[in-house]
Write a structure and sequence with these properties.
79% helix, mainly alpha, 6 helices, globular
């Protein structure tokens, strides 16, 4: 039964990423639908305590919300709500890992684009204030965390660096 909810979660992430790429917006109906998938998952398949899911809904989204308040335009409220809904599904450990993955992947993307623009000297240049559809990277981070997050966490915890 877990697989059904995980597939629904991944399908929602694909729809949200596609919408964010084209419109730079994450509609509330997509977030609400993702919340319903999370609620169903918790009710039917919950593998951890409800507190872990509640904390997941709050921990990363609260940080994004505070950054959005301090730095206007840094994140849209769709990104904040997306991480809250994703955290509700994934729980606190995996949503934190999702946020880390999202920031790393988006940073790598920006570096690659800057490098390609410098080499090719073609196309639209990314400036410091260029809008980036960050919801796409959040979706990628959540998908990676859902699929391989537990292995990454276990590898880290069992490493000599921990």
């Amino acid at each position: 039964m877990n697989y059904i909810f995980e597939m629904l979660f991944l399908i929602h992430l694909l729809m949200i990423a596609e919408k964010d790429i084209h419109e730079k917006k994450i509609p509330n109906r997509y977030i609400l639908s993702l919340c319903l998938v999370a609620a169903g998952f918790i009710a039917v398949c919950r593998t951890s305590g409800i507190a872990a899911h509640f904390l997941g809904a709050v921990c990363v989204s609260a940080v994004l919300f505070l950054i959005a308040l301090i730095v206007p335009g840094a994140f849209g409220m769709g990104d904040v709500k997306l991480m809250a809904a994703g955290g509700w599904f994934l729980g606190w450990k995996l949503i934190i890992l999702s946020g880390i993955f999202a920031f790393l992947i988006s940073g790598l993307y920006i570096i690659v684009v800057w490098f390609l623009q410098a080499v090719c000297k073609k196309g639209k240049t990314i400036h410091r204030r260029t809008e980036l559809a960050f919801g796409v990277f959040l979706c990628i981070g959540m998908a990676v965390s859902l699929l391989w997050g537990e292995q990454v966490i276990n590898c880290y915890v069992n490493s000599p660096f921990y």
